[in-house]
Amino acid sequence: MRISALFAYSFVVLGMVTSGCSQGTAVAPASTLQGLTELHARRGGPAPNHVLTWLILDAPGGPNIDPSKVVQWVDYTMTKQPTSQIAHSLGMKTIMYTDPNRTGPGDLMHTNDESTYAHDCSNNRIQVIGKDKQLMNVYSSHLWKLWPKAVQEMISWDGGGVYDYIFEDTADSVVGVKLSAIPCNFDQTRWTNETNDLDSTLGYPIIYNGLAHVPPGTASPAPAIGLNPTSSGGMGEDCYVGRTPTGYHYVPNWLAMENTELTMLAEGRTFICHGDAHVQASSNDALRTYFFASFLLTYDVASSVVNTEFLTPSQVTIMPETQLVAEQPLVPTPSSIDALAQPGGVYGREYATCYLAGASIGPCAVAVNPNNPKAVPPLPFPWPGKYTHTMTMNGAGAYDGGTVRTNGPAPPANMKGGTAVIAFP
After folding, report:
1. Could you say which of 3.30.70.360, 3.20.20.70, 3.100.10.10, 3.40.50.2300 is the CATH number of the domain covering 2-322?
2. Mind listing the pLDDT tens digit for each residue in 237-274?
């Protein structure tokens, strides 16, 4: 996983522990989130300047920038201990990276206790292919004690961090990932249940990463969604866009991620949509539109979070289109993405009130054709004549001066597979 590659340093003893340091604290999250897109028949206060966003900051994979310079665009940040204090004081939600599910030499949880490692039926440790890591055994009560101890130590590093959430990478991720073997007598339901037992021992709010591993060929969420009872939220990598030859994810994977977004909302959990297409932002407007329109179809302004890896000069990966906030959907939030399928075959949703950088711009609509263009011919735009303009972008990220406009050309009569439209009257 790209997240684990970026933050592997966090879980390794690098001589960073400072004796006599005060231990940081993890702040409890807000109470169960409620869907403001439906609760707000009329907004009573100022509109947000952007949808919720997530950025790695002052750490590998992210920019080395003072949080005060990006706070206007960033809501959640995964960051190092000293920077977490600054970011938290500015109102950002702070996250500390850990991975109790994969460890390797030098990691705090990599010990000689064999019971903490998963084994195949020949009693061999299970290797993570391509990394010097092993799969850990979530059944182990010893592992349940190692993780809280490691987290407490890590929080104390470099003078102490202040964190709202602990990030649990590769959570409940066994099937469909690069491992040398499957644990002996593996049962997915039991593994999920034992991961919940692991999570319940931590004592800190958790955001897990594992929602990308949807069952192949289905429209169902990944097994990791079963960790919601013991977590505050979850991340889905490859969310609508990511590591494919074209950068696009098509049906049925696209359907599964939409249903994941809906399920996370229904269960009152934060959902981080991590679109990890690692391509230049300034030359991939169509891919950016596809990602953001797909996100908006089923998002909630209070609990859905955008996280991208589009390349920018500054490494600040917050795109200007995140300043578009859509509220008051004409169709209430459904239980399945199927309910948003339009008669012509694309998926679409209309919103009565939309905002750009906090200013009301009237209604808007999103439409996505998530089919592989090689497999399905173009499908009609669902509201011919109703919308006369579309969203366009210019440049890269918001911090780098990128812009977004709502006066682009009219929507096309027909939408090719792998395209999306964000439309305005």
Report:
1. 3.20.20.70
2. 999 999 999 999 999 999 999 999 999 999 999 999 99
